[in-house]
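Researcher: Structure for this, please.
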Amino acid sequence: MSIDLKSLVRTIPDYPKPGILFRDITTLIEHPEGFKESVERIAAAHRGMGFTHVAGIEARGFIFGAGVAIALGVGFVPVRKRGKLPGTTIGQNYALEYGVDTIEIHADVLSNVHKVLIVDDLIATGGTAIAAVSLIRRAGAACDNAAFVIDLPDLGGAEKLRAEKVAVSSLMAFEGH
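Model: Predicted structure, token format:
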């Protein structure tokens, strides 16, 4: 029996600011069967594709990405905000609404023998995901697939990723922002 995962995602209006419909995945991950099925569906869609690692984007991408990595039997790479990883890192800047931020991975974790699946909870404008793809590719690894629990197609992030030659999949989509 398949679970209606979309029904497990809570919508919070006007958060974090007026006019935004926040898609809250905490209600999904608090539901044991829904959480397990989310991870299994992402893993099943990417099994047998030769991935060596899953890269999860901070912070909610860690939740789903670690589970997908276990399900696929591959390593997990945390993509973190600047200054959060010990040791030598490489970083990638990306634009925010007002300014620039940086994400990082360990400098010695990926090379040209690796194939990486990016996993995150949500794709909106695509800025962080595109930065993660660029960062992983700069490390030498192949990065041509990204999976999300939720897509907000009206914000165009999935299409921007596809323009970077990344196959994008999601478990569900919500209209609006």
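Researcher: Any notable elements?
Model: The helical segments are 26-29, 32-46, 60-72, 127-138, 157-163. The mean pLDDT is 96.
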